[in-house]
Protein 1
Amino acid sequence: MDDAAFGAVLADLLERSHHTAPAELAALVRGAAQAIGLDDAAVYLADVQQTHLVPYPTDGPSTAEEPTPEAALRMEGTFAGWAYRTESLRLSTDDGLVLWLPLIDGIERIGVLRVTAAALDAPTIARCRTLASVTALIVISKSSIGDTVPRMVRTRPMTLQAELAWAFMPPRTLGTSEVTSSAVLEPAYEIGGDAFDHSLDARNLHLAVVDAMGHDVASGLSSSLALAGYRSSRRLGAGLADIVDAVDRALARWVPDRLLTAVFATLDLATGRLSWVNCGHPAPLLIRRQHVVPAALTRPAHLPLGLGPLYPAPAPHLHHAQLEPGDRILVHTDGVTEGRSRTGEMFGEPRLVDTVVRATAAGEPTPEALHRLVRTILDHQSGRLTDDATILLAEWHPTGGRSQQGM
């Protein structure tokens, strides 16, 4: 197949995708794969906790609602999981020629594409990569217009407060040639008051991590309201101090008697200047050359949010720090470090940092490093968290591209 014919197949795939229902996506991709000379293609998406890869249903809406657990592939110990975790292709010859390619939206991992073929030369593999990229775009476009994708990536029911919180959450990973930001949040199906946000504009990376009091629906409402207030003010051009005031007033008005801690930050991508406000939250950590710089970002904290105008407080402290290329900023909630094992041992900040540093030093991508950190936290608490645990890790790499330290 020449490039013109391949381009025509992709153009047809994109054109047909506009009018394809989410439940028909697998058949659409398979048809395109066969049109370029492959035997077959199948889409697998990562479940909410990123422990399994779930096959996209192939028989229409009925199976789209109920994926079978037996068909899911484990992340650990499989070619599919290896392709997802390392963000690279993997070739298996155990059952014919099977190529596994990561499905990535921007730099957000969403799943893998399984391709089978009688022969796989370099041009064919290159076309498979392109097909995977286009498939990822189509999957994302269909994820928000129905329940096919949300249902298939869940392995158990989600609480009402978790449903509310996840509805407001952005993609877990985003980035450019200058910066990367990734976050994880557990327990994914029962999250109460934790939430995060990250966003890019022409000049800045905007970051937020919030932790609302409690673990009920009001907690989910508090964190969702905080993110809505944060985004609304930010999009109007408000500075961090004004954002804090807006979120404080919104919480006091709509969710009275509920407090929330938060870190709101802005990173200037051109200069590396970090600005932030800490509202009663654990201090962010600065990781430089695989070591934490002690107390580098520890500053006086503002009061938690939600007190409102009835309890006037001084203007929030706006802090600044100058980053160096390759520096990482780690923001977490107290559920990470204060989680206890069955013997009462706290997870602690040193273990948190050590786990992240070891994983990134070994060359793992940041999303995978954070995923492994969450598994370590869960293991420490015997698989059952007593509090929400959220971690956001951002790296400034202005020289272009993700660093060789795992970002």
Protein 2
Amino acid sequence: MTHLIIVLTLIALDIVIFTLLMAHILLRRNGSSETRLAWIVFIILVPYIGALLYLLVGGAHFSIRRKHCDILEMPGIERPDLADLPGMDINTPEPYRRVFTLAENLCPSDALGGHALELKTNSDSFLEPLCRDIEQATRHVHLLTYIYLTDQAGQRVADALRAAAKRGVKCRVLVDSLGSKAFLKSQLREDMMAEGVRVVEALPARLLRIARTRLDLRNHRKIVVIDNSIGYLGSQNIADPSFAPKAKYAPWVDCMVRMKGPAVHDLQELFLSDWYMDTVELEQELIEEVPHVEPDGAEVQVIGSGPDLPSEILSMVIQTCFHVASEEIILTTPYFVPDIAMETAMLAAARRGVDTTLILPKNNDSKLVALASRSHYERLLEAGIKIHHYTSGLLHAKTLTVDRQLFLVGSANLDRRSLELNFEVNLLGWKPDFAGQLRLLQKSYLNESERVSDTQWLQARWPKRLARNAAGMLSPLL
């Protein structure tokens, strides 16, 4: 009798826990219907593991301080109205202007004119000018990265920062807790701090923080701001292309943008907001200072995204890029796991006759994401979208060009993690000359790629189709 009571009690407890979890999934404010359904199915199939994983990473919750760290809303902080300053007018033609209109309605930043942009197409073309700019800094250097390795690239940047700090330049380095785990424990970090470089751990990953924060919410941004006049953003971490932690996929192929102009102020705001989240330190004058306007420059908008900002900012911007395209779309990303709306926008563009090309790495460091990505290929190929697999390393650049006119480049992948969870930064812009340079880079990727054959892909054997589609079902959770 006692045994029966224990069994019935456990069954009742299971039912109560399951019911509460289902209610929580259905009542949560963030997340799509497909994500809710995926979590419910996953918990039913693997009840205890699924429930534990949902409690750990199922909701985009983070600490109260992080939810209320908008530095622009703090008493006494005055942000200059950049859009009203001379030389910052936007002349982007329709229909591309619609993308900026959407972004301005979703983001705290403005679309601004007056920018000098330089495309850095590989690691050396990024690190050499970066170190040179740091060597010429007179006031401050702010660097935010997801991964900082103690390799040659990491040493080069560290040396430049240490020399700058010795000159009295304020050097602040913010690195993600998980992405830069080894660096945070390294001698290099200790040496940098001993010589005056502030190195801070972003979003500390501690088991004791689970109740307040999702441990898998990461700061994936790559930002450098120097003297509030020069900014860098893009896909490259502070690491050699050989990327020692995953050398068998090397080289990592990235691109960055060096920028001068008023939008550097928006990069500064993002960095200072992230710095404040982990230090509660803020230099007000850096927010109120306005960078120089470059004559006849590009029109751009810095798009910061993350769980502390309105949901689906970046997803809607990219979808609108697909909607306004009339001739050509070229997209590169290492991780491609679109939601239904994103995939539908791509399919609609291709069906309208837009020449649509997707370039992905042939060998991906995430096998599950690669399988989930390839579960979408059949529909894309049937719509006429050209898919190419890059074969000369892991293509890590995240780029989008539209009609040789509009461009998007930054840190965000085209997957759920980047679009909904991680802190990311991207640059939306209109400048045919720069869009043409970025398109030439994309074409160079195509020259080192293999086109996916429609016939061969559609005739794949059932074990491969089974693995792809099973991974695709989990894509809302990836």
Protein 3
Amino acid sequence: MYESGTWLSTRVLTTAAVFALGAVFTTVPAQAEDTPSVPSSEMSMGTKLTTRLKNKAIGNDLAYVVMDALSQRIVASKNGDKPMLPASNMKIITATNVLSTMAPTKTFTTAVFPESTSGRVVLQGGGDPLLTKRNLKALATKVAALVDHSQPLIVDTDLNMFPEPTNGPGWTKRYIPSVVSPVTPLGIYGDYSRNPTDYAINTFITELNRLGIQTSRGIELDVAADSIPLASISPHTVADAVHIMLLDSENNVAEILFRHVAIATLHPATWQGAAEAALANLNALGLNTANLRLADGSGLSRADRLTAIFLANVLRLVSTTDPTRFSVMFEPGSMPTSGVDGTLKAKFHRYTSAPSSCAKGNIRAKTGTLHDTITLSGTTHDADGQLKVFSFLVNNRPTQVIPLRTRQAIDGLAATITGCW
């Protein structure tokens, strides 16, 4: 249970003095402990936030929590335990689950296996969320050096790491092809088409043809677990994927990592299996997941629900309680920095004008946007240099203002925490 303000406890100390021929008990008068005082900077912050929340760009459906990271003291809050649409603040949760179930140095392997039938190989997707055309061409070059150029080559595929692609629960029809693609273990980074697997396979086959091998596409099959690859590539790590997911709010990366958490924790790599894995792991980390719903890993789902207090507690865990384990989240090029990079860069008009511009470079936070939702959750230091974690979740944002105005209003609230405004 979290309480704001001060608290008081008393104790009575009793000592006994034992003398020859008898015993005399002396009771020390009760003494009040030093009462922890709320820093003046926090009192000022709370007052300012209360006033600045009354903003037409924010509206009436706001939940927020500001917490002192060291003491876990709630500095200010409103509707902190209300389940809200988190939008891409869900990626904070995905990153936390990923880094607590997989080593940041773990790599994703895309491989080609020989078949018993001459003139056939199997291209196996390994769930690399950052796989590029250049990577696939490099793999094709390796294969070309190992096969007979004088006979045609058929490329079969193994896509069994994940189940057959389907839309996520709560995804709207306009998401594909636009901001996310069907989840596949073999796709090219940045491809939001309806069939990213086809594009990846065709890229590989086209390169083999260019290298002088008559190549065509075959069938789908399952490679035996003990098979030895003919050639493989492992160009990206878990840390690389977490960096990109947080910095650029990359939805495809988030959804692939969502499935990897399921696999790492021995759950089915289905939507339901991944959601169950995510909640189970959060509980194992000691976090209270009551009233939450995790339908996907990106936050696109209209079925997702998080609370501001939960996000604040997660941020406290990763920044303060166990910072080494989750350090990838706060490395350069990971969680966006206010007015500097990622989805908080100046290009997007974040922290570029008063009143929030004074906080440029001082806030690390994850943004979130759906058509009716604007969110921002992260960390910063207050005027006294104390680390604060915060979460601002706006649902049903006012439609009479453009989304940027709501984002900038929330930026102002985060700047208030720093004490610069």
